[in-house]
Write a sequence for this structure.
């Protein structure tokens, strides 16, 4: 292994230092970590998952199973990075994985000696007994010994992003087929996105010594990519892997923006793209597959195509003495190219008997490699020749070619099954597997350069036709049209020793035989029994070989044996990338009232209510516990006046000649009879008879209502009204729109509320604004709305002004309230005030309660139909023993009640069977000087005065309580009418 | 039954579906909220408990084409009557529920 | 009656936020009113509007404007009249013909302009913005929030509900920052 004197797409004038396992090396721009390590003579790059076998790089692409690394330090350390795709950057720190204490001498390699006991299925058999040992002993040991890279243990500091892109034609893959497709589509005027997972566009064109259009294929690729990049209708996205195909022409793609730079400097390291394409051309190429033979996993044994890639693209000789093992003509190309690069080729071994390799080196036909030797890397191999004799060959690199598998993975993402082609001994995509996606080039089983170019052009022309664009015909370049002959050959038969199929999960030919023996013969069973194909490479290299072995054992053909289903993602995607934008403030939008900053400046403790941020309580000097503030605020409202921002309540403006009729059908009670200038409390049900929401609705004009909803139900209620208006009764002439955001609304509650408002509003007399009255008003020249409604049981108003004045209004009213011995109150006090009065929130209206359960059957109009009317009268919903809303007061020595406690009878065991109900809301009532609660109790309405228990088994509290009316405070309602 | 607030759609990134809204054109399905079978259009106004039982609870569970109600909550707010193949997710028809009901009358 | 004034809240963006090649600003119009014509009143509403603002309601997904007042489609059967026009004159003209509500305080009108604006928008909005021409407008999702997106000279107008505006400004400026850093790579 060394750098060749010339060639490759690397900048030899620049040297980049990096470290691998603490040792410093240099690379050149254009190098991957794998090519740089090979150039530096490093071929031992990892240890295998189960047996800790020494492993080197096998491939030169994203299918790499062996050379997985940890890149970076501290929180930035990313495990399981493929050295074959990771670009080297200045100062990069790379470490090998799954070894202890070091790569060259891994103590856990003892697993390899134990391999007779660790075959497929060993987990299931060996660790069956004793049962409790699994979690305590076996699993931790296995997890430590078997594995991949380590997580950093720190929060990920990298920045990720998501983005959307739209195009007429998405081309997946920038090899000959993809470039030709993109060029044809672009010239026809289509909006094109060309995505390629590599950092250099060109695919195999960069890895071969071939000529396209009279120039070196590398040059042709550069020229076309440059041409494409200059076109305004084309977006060339390198370092972008299309990871999944989804419904409606949507594709997921990961763009690695800054994985190749030392410091991203605030840029996202990766972007997850959602690309919506009218047409897609899959030109993802093909991956070469290995042949299984004993000890075929020794470092230095590589895919033949990878040997060529390292030579031509990176200017790296993968060995000084190369041997080639092949079942097809393509393998010869590697031998020829190696010779041309001045490397000794010690043997060309072809499994076929009827071929005459035209290569100037020792050749063996009808032969096979039956073993390899060497410490921490290949030094020699044994060849069984056509006459059965065995020859030893020296080689420090063995290039293996078992044929090519089209990269058809995306075509399986919507459940499509591939089609088998005997002539190339491979599966190809089935036409129509993904709507509006066509496959071109090697991904379609057309492996020649010319064939790929042609298919790319044809696919693009078809897309242009479908798009209604003119079909241009770019000049078809000349290129190599060699159709490589192949004779299927999956594993060397009649040999001793372990022949690896899945390098990453350490699955051998023998393991497949074990699966067959134990009757795990369906591919899906075989996969799970052996774990073949379940590693991070998703079986890109191993699936075909294993299928072939199973087919051989069952006597079926490969297509009869079938294949497992490919699912997204095509290559592993970091969780951070998938979750991009969802961390921190991206988790959910935040909503702020217009008095938010004011409340914060007053020292309010804020609480999230749905998406809203609301003031929970306003601590005054000396108050150190929320209860002190809350008790004071409650007392203040009961004795003087309190001011609270209630802007978050949903407000829906409803207008039209049929608005009254519409509301009659929405609410259980009548609204068409409500007089202009009055407000009514309403209850709305779902069609199944359960309570949906409650609130007040004001009639502002003959055809104009303003509905309020609870904060949490504002969205769902709006949707519900729109459903009713559009889907049920579109004949009704009614229009609705949310005005929640238009109005800042402030509750002014307490015996001194009228006195306070009289200071700022002209007329708040009982005559103009009686209980449940409403109307337009004006405050300091700003138009507003005043509602005489109460959620506290006190004389109270809600005053609405345009949102921009919300802060000023709060500030003004609170100052004036403070002068009267009152002040601001928050959510905690609001909650206590409404519990004392027995008013509802969604703690009570939890989707399982009826109007009758709440004691509101009187609100169910008999004069009209309304949503939920019929269903609410079903037998089960009118059962008098349903859980009904009641109040609770402690009567025993325990004075505390906890929310969520279950209700049980005094002498009953607190079990599920004995449950009599549950506590929904609980608070300390400063007004009543003790804890009170709202609860649902079976037949509760007839059990007032009875004693029952509220039991919390989690927090171990058992309270004797009396069932009382839920209206603890002023049950006659004299105060709010005052 | 508290659904997620309709003002906000937190979407899980598995699978994607495009819906052609008659007002807004082709949009990602994250902008829409699914309600259920289009049977919900046929409210038995004035019906008895049995009729409502059928209306509220009984649904066909077809393989292939299903008629559904979706709302374009993040867009025009229109309720849509959609014919969707539940096996392939292919949407073959999108109509405004409002128009459908008015035609039926 | 006490003598006092109600001051309006400070703008959420006092100085335009300029990051990279994009500028995020607040461009709050004098007023925004919703207009939803009642059944069979479409023609009458258009006639009445022509007498007040000199144009009719635009088609679905479109914007119409004269001088500094414009009407934009804002959803099924609903339009926004944006600009310097009084609620009284509008309700007088449209009385019984359409439901009119004041939305001036319900929406915050942001503008995102500059060379980076289209790319920044792809991070925030699932719309195909290149297909949205001048004179068009869309109700769409913007960073998981409801919005009205309208192309304007040199960028986009983003209307967001007031309570969400702080979140929208946070996400937009965050995306502007990330994109500027990406371009600097």
């Amino acid at each position: 292994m060394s750098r060749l004197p010339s060639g490759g797409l690397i900048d030899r004038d620049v040297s980049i230092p990096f470290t691998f396992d603490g040792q410093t090396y240099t690379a050149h721009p254009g190098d991957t970590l794998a090519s740089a390590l090979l150039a530096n003579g490093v071929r031992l790059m990892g240890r295998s998952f189960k047996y800790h076998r020494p492993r080197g790089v096998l491939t030169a692409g994203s299918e790499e199973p062996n050379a997985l690394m940890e890149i970076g330090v501290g929180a930035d350390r990313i495990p399981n990075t493929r050295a074959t795709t990771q670009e080297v950057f200045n100062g990069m720190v790379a470490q090998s994985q799954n070894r202890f204490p070091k790569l060259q001498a891994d103590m856990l390699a003892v697993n390899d000696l134990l391999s007779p006991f660790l075959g497929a299925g060993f987990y299931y058999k060996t660790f069956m007994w004793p049962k409790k040992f699994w979690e305590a002993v076996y699993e931790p040991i296995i997890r430590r010994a078997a594995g991949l890279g380590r997580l950093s243990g720190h929060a990920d500091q990298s920045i990720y992003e998501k983005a959307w892109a739209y195009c007429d034609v998405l081309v997946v893959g920038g090899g000959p087929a993809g470039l030709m497709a993109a060029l044809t589509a672009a010239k026809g005027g289509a909006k094109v996105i060309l995505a390629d997972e590599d950092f250099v566009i060109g695919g195999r064109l960069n890895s071969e010594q071939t000529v396209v259009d009279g120039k070196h294929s590398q040059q042709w690729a550069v020229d076309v990519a440059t041409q494409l990049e200059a076109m305004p209708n084309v977006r060339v996205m390198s370092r972008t892997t299309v990871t999944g195909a989804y419904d409606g022409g949507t594709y997921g793609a990961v763009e690695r923006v800054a994985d190749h730079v030392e410091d991203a400097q605030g840029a996202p390291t990766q972007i997850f793209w959602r690309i919506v394409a009218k047409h897609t051309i899959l030109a993802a190429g093909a991956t070469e597959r290995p042949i299984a033979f004993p000890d075929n996993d020794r470092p230095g044994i590589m895919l033949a195509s990878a040997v060529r890639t390292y030579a031509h693209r990176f200017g790296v000789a993968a060995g000084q003495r190369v041997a080639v093992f092949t079942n097809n003509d393509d393998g010869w190309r590697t031998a020829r190219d190696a010779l041309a690069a001045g490397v000794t080729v010690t043997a060309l071994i072809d499994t076929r008997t009827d071929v005459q390799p035209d290569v100037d080196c020792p050749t063996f036909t009808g032969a096979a490699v039956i073993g390899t030797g060497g410490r921490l890397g290949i030094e020699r191999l044994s060849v069984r020749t056509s006459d059965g004799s065995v020859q030893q060959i020296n080689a420090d690199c063995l290039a293996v070619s078992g044929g090519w598998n089209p990269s058809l993975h995306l075509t399986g993402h919507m459940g499509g099954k591939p089609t088998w082609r005997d002539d190339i001994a491979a599966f190809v995509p089935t036409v129509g597997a993904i709507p509006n996606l066509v496959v071109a080039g090697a991904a379609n089983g057309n492996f020649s350069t010319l064939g790929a170019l042609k298919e790319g052009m044809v696919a693009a022309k078809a897309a242009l036709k479908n798009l209604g664009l003119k079909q241009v015909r770019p000049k078809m370049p000349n290129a190599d049209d060699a159709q490589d002959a192949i004779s299927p050959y999956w594993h060397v038969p009649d040999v001793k020793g372990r022949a690896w199929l899945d390098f990453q999960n350490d699955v051998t030919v023998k393991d497949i035989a074990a699966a067959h023996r134990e009757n795990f013969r369906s591919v899906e069973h075989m996969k799970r029994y052996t774990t073949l194909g379940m590693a991070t490479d998703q079986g890109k290299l191993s699936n075909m070989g294993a299928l072939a072995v199973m087919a051989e054992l069952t006597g079926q053909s490969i297509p009869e044996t079938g294949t497992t289903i490919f699912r997204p993602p095509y290559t592993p995607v970091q969780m951070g990338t998938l979750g991009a934008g969802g961390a921190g403030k991206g988790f959910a939008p935040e909503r702020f009232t217009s008095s938010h900053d004011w409340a914060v400046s007053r020292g309010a403790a804020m609480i999230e209510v749905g998406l809203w941020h609301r003031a929970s309580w306003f601590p005054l000097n000396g108050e150190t516990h929320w209860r002190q503030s809350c008790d004071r605020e409650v007392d203040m409202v009961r004795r003087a006046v309190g001011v609270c921002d209630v802007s978050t309540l949903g407000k829906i403006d409803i207008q039209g000649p049929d608005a009254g009729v519409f509301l009659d059908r929405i609410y259980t009670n009548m609204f068409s009879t409500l007089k202009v200038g009055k407000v009514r409390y309403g209850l709305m049900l779902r069609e199944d008879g359960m309570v949906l929401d409650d609130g007040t609705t004001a009639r502002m004009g003959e055809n104009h209502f303003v509905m309020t909803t609870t904060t949490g139900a504002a969205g769902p209620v709006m949707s519900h009204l729109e459903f009713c208006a559009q889907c049920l009764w579109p004949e009704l002439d009614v229009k609705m729109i949310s005005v929640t955001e238009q109005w800042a609304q402030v509750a002014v509650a307490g015996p001194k509320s009228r006195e306070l408002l009289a200071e700022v509003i002209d007329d708040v007399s009982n005559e103009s604004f009686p209980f449940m009255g409403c109307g337009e008003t004006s405050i300091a020249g700003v138009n507003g709305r005043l509602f005489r409604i109460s959620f506290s049981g006190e004389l109270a108003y809600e005053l609405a002004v345009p949102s921009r004045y919300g802060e000023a209004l709060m500030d003004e009213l609170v100052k004036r309230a403070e002068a009267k011995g009152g002040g601001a109150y928050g959510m905690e006090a609001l909650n206590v005030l409404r519990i004392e009065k027995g008013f509802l929130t969604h703690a009570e209206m939890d989707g399982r309660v009826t109007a009758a359960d709440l004691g509101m059957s009187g609100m169910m109009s008999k004069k009209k139909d309304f949503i939920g009317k019929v269903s609410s009268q079903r037998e089960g919903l009118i059962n008098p023993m349903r859980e009904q809303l009641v109040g609770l007061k402690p009567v025993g020595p325990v004075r505390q009640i906890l929310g969520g406690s279950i209700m049980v009878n005094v002498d009953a065991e607190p079990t599920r069977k004995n449950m009599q109900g549950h506590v929904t809301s609980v608070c300390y009532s400063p007004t009543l000087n003790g804890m009170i609660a709202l609860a649902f109790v079976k037949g509760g309405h007839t059990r007032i005065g009875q004693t029952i228990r509220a039991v919390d088994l989690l927090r171990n509290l058992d309270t004797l309580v009396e069932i009382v009316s839920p209206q603890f405070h002023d049950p006659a309602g004299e105060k709010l009418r005052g | 039954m508290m659904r997620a607030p309709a003002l906000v759609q937190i979407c899980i990134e598995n699978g994607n579906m495009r819906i052609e809204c008659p007002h807004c054109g082709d949009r990602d399905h994250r902008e829409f909220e699914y309600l259920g079978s289009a049977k919900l259009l046929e409210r038995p106004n004035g019906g008895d408990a049995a009729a409502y039982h059928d209306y509220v609870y009984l649904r066909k569970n077809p393989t292939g084409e299903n008629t559904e109600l979706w709302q374009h909550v993040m867009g025009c707010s229109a309720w849509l009557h959609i014919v969707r193949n539940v096996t392939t997710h292919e949407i073959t028809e999108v109509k405004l529920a409002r128009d459908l009901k008015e035609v039926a009358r | 009656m006490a003598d006092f004034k109600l001051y309006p809240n400070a703008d959420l963006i006092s100085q335009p936020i300029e990051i990279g090649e994009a500028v995020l600003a607040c461009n709050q119009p004098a007023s925004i009113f919703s207009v939803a014509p009642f059944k069979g009143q479409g023609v009458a509403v258009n006639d009445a509007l022509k007498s007040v603002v000199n144009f009719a309601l635009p088609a679905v997904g479109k914007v119409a404007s004269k001088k500094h007042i414009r009407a934009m489609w804002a959803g099924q059967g609903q339009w926004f009249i944006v600009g310097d026009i009084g609620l009284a004159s509008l309700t007088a003209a449209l009385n019984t013909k359409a439901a009119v509500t004041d939305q001036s305080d319900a929406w915050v009108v942001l503008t995102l302009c500059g060379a980076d604006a289209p790319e920044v928008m792809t991070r925030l909005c699932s719309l195909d913005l290149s297909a949205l021409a001048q004179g068009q407008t869309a109700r769409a999702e913007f960073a998981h929030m409801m919005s009205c997106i309208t192309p304007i000279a040199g960028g986009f107008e983003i209307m967001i509900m007031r309570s969400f505006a702080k979140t929208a400004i946070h996400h937009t400026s965050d995306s502007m920052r990330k994109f500027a850093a990406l371009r600097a790579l």
